[in-house]
Specification:
With about 90 residues, this protein is mainly alpha-helical. It has one domain (about 25-90). It has one helix and no strands. The chain is rod-shaped, with a radius of gyration of 37 Å. It starts with about 20 loop residues before the first helix and ends with a helix. Keywords: Membrane, Transmembrane, Transmembrane helix.
């Protein structure tokens, strides 16, 4: 253990006389509450942006896959019509 000098002034607990006045306490509380609200809003903004970006990515992926299915069905229909025309004409 380190040896330190003893504090000559003993620490007496909490002294209400040196505390804030009622107005100071009220102002401090208001400032602290607005800071907490601002911090919470700043924390929420990136979450919404990330969620929105994820939804957009997911929607693009769904649109691509549905587009491929529609394209394949259209090609099959065109091929079927072409084969039927060739069969009936020949």
């Amino acid at each position: 253990m380190a040896v330190t000098r003893r504090d000559p002034v003993p620490h007496h607990g909490y002294d209400e006389e040196n505390d804030f006045t009622t107005d100071q306490r009220r102002r401090y509380t208001q400032v602290a509450n607005t800071a907490v609200k601002r911090r919470q809003e700043q924390d929420e903004i990136p979450v919404h942006k990330r969620k929105r970006a994820a939804v957009i990515r997911r929607a693009k992926r769904i649109n691509r896959s549905s587009h491929k299915v529609k394209y394949a069905l259209a090609m099959l229909a065109i091929l079927a019509v072409g084969l039927s025309v060739m069969y009936l004409s020949g």
